[in-house]
Amino acid sequence: MTAFRLARIISRPMTDRNQELVTPEGLEKLQQELSYLTEVRRKEVADRIRQAREFGDISENSEYDDAKTEQGLLERRIGEIQRRIRNAKVVDPSAADTDAVDLGTRVTLRVVGSKKKGNERTFQIVGANESDPTNGKLSHASPVGRAVLRRKVGDKVTVSTPRGSTEYEIVNVEVAS
Fold this sequence. Notes:
The protein is α/β, with parallel strands linked by helices. It has 2 domains: 3-90, Helix Hairpins, CATH 1.10.287; 93-175, Transcription elongation factor, GreA/GreB, C-terminal domain (Chitinase A, domain 3), CATH 3.10.50. It contains 4 helices and 7 strands; from the N terminus they run H-E-H-H-E-E-E-E-H-E-E. Strands 5-4-3-7-6 form a 5-stranded mixed β-sheet. A two-stranded parallel ribbon has the order 1-2. A hairpin with an 8-residue loop joins strand 3 (105-111) and strand 4 (120-126). The longest helix has 30 residues, at 24-53. The chain is elongated, with a radius of gyration of 23 Å. The chain starts with a helix and ends with a strand. Mean pLDDT is 83; it is low at 1-15.
């Protein structure tokens, strides 16, 4: 295999995988969490380590071991958030085209064959790490999100899930506020 072909195979997936699509709200949440972890939690954990050291011999000090473990987990989380912010591609919902479902739009779906209002659900399409279906935020990478992406009002899509296939009709697409 040539080096060029190998580089092409490796680089494309790595580029896609490293970039994270987020809404401005999602980026704001990441920045708030990073600020809290670095300004508040780091100090709390450092205080726990300092207090545990005061107990004496750290080689047999479970308080110290627990605090150091917590520090490691905290630093790992801080690093993960910093990476996500660095690789974030912010998608502005106000710039979304309401002709079709896209990241940042709100889409209303109805189960095909059902006229009941209760069989309609409205979701905002968000980045994968912002997903919260119980609060109406659906990942663009979820089965339903992938099925409706780039589709228009009136289109019907079939979504395969572990519970079986369901056919939905796109009833409305609007810019999420």
